[in-house]
Design brief:
The chain has 369 residues and is α/β, with parallel strands linked by helices. 44% of the residues lie in helices and 19% in strands. The chain folds into two domains: 2-168 and 349-368, Rossmann fold, CATH 3.40.50; 178-338, Glycogen Phosphorylase B (Rossmann fold), CATH 3.40.50. It starts with a strand and ends with a helix.
């Protein structure tokens, strides 16, 4: 078995969905018996926080390893004007060419949701051209990335890019604690970042009032159920605080709980166990949807950002509602009452993911034979 010293550049703190994704990826990566992957993690947010830079020091660090993995994550955005690649991987192409080891871009999102300027598209195209010339491995995830490549970059590029489900579908997690096991509940995740996009049709205040109506109707119809709000990042606490402030006191004191906001490598396990114990999940963030579906829990996507809509389109599922429309509370309750469960979905996703892993193994063989 060949030893590979690997540097993994991704987000490991501040978003439990990322931690779940890495867990699923490592689980399948370590099934490649040809290699022993000795992985060291490098937090990508240190580059966003200007604590690190894609400079000579980064190149020198990377070249002390055998393999660089970047992602998974939503790092192929198309709006980052200050970046030489048009994305959050803000590395000069000349510097990229100084990296002497193979790079594996793992299940990245190509996201035009916050815009896609001509400059960024051109820079990203040049970036892809160089990666393809270097014969690096590029894979994109099932969040509309394939459609974005076709619409903004060109369908021909898909010949050089692998498509894969996000590894968050394949997490394992412990059972919910006795506290949650003693209850019947639905788990809800709501995101409020990018509010100018999420709430451009229905204002945030209107959204809050409508979601309050849904909670009241749900509790009236399912009077033995409770509701658990699940934050994935700190910004999710804003909605939780706002909805609690407008709910009647008897509801928020007797029917509402809030899951902990955790961070770090094993953080997903505790929080995802809450999804695992739920009778239903109402999910607004990408990994809140992906992981809940992967755990086999009936999940309804709450759409106010293109990424979630594209996820359900690619899953060929109608288990979502648009929360940008007036009176969405009515449709949401109807979706719960008439949920359409596809018991073959996970088999299909795993087959697609295994196909991607076979391509990774073949590519590694071409680099380290």
């Amino acid at each position: 078995m060949k030893e590979l010293k690997v540097l993994h550049l991704a987000s490991f703190n501040g978003n439990i969905g990322d931690n779940a994704n890495h867990y699923g990826f490592y689980k399948y990566l370590n099934k490649i018996n040809t290699y022993n992957f000795n992985i060291e993690e490098l937090e990508i947010r240190e580059f966003f926080w200007k604590k690190r830079f894609f400079d000579d020091n980064f190149i020198k660090l990377v070249n002390t390893y055998d393999l660089l993995i970047i992602g998974g994550g939503n790092y192929f955005e198309l709006w980052v004007e200050g970046s030489p690649t048009g994305t959050s991987i803000a590395i000069e192409l000349e510097k990229l060419n100084e990296i002497k080891i193979p790079i594996l871009f793992n299940a990245l999102g190509v996201d035009p949701g916050q815009g896609a300027t001509k400059n960024c598209i051109n820079r990203f195209t040049n970036f892809l051209d160089l990666l393809i010339e270097r014969n690096d491995y590029i894979s994109i995830r099932n969040d509309g990335a394939k459609k974005a490549i076709i619409d903004y970059i060109g369908e021909k590029y898909l010949h050089s890019i692998q498509y894969t489900p996000d590894a968050g579908f394949f997490i394992d997690t412990k059972n919910a604690t006795d506290y949650y096991n003693s209850k019947e509940y639905i788990a809800i995740n709501i995101a409020t970042d990018m509010d100018n996009i999420r709430f451009s049709n229905l204002s945030y205040d209107e959204f809050l009032v409508t979601f309050k109506r849904f909670i009241i109707k749900f509790i009236k119809e399912y009077d033995n159920f409770e509701i658990i709000f699940v934050p994935h990042i700190f910004r999710d606490m804003s909605f939780i605080n706002d909805i609690l402030n407008i709910l009647d006191d008897d509801i928020r004191r007797t029917k509402i709980s809030v899951a902990p906001l955790l961070h770090g490598k094993e953080s997903f396990n505790e929080v995802m166990s809450i999804y695992k114990g739920a009778k239903f999940v109402l999910a607004n963030r990408f990994h809140a949807n992906v992981c809940s579906i992967g755990l086999g829990i009936p999940t309804i996507g709450l759409i106010n950002y293109r990424q979630i809509e594209e996820l359900y389109n690619e899953l060929e599922s109608n288990n979502f509602i648009d929360i940008r429309i007036k009176d969405f509370d009515i449709e949401l309750l109807n979706k719960i009452n008439k949920y359409d469960y596809n018991n073959q979905l996970l088999e299909i996703l795993e087959s697609q993911y295994l196909d991607n892993m076979q391509h990774i193994e073949k590519w590694l063989g071409s680099k380290f034979s």
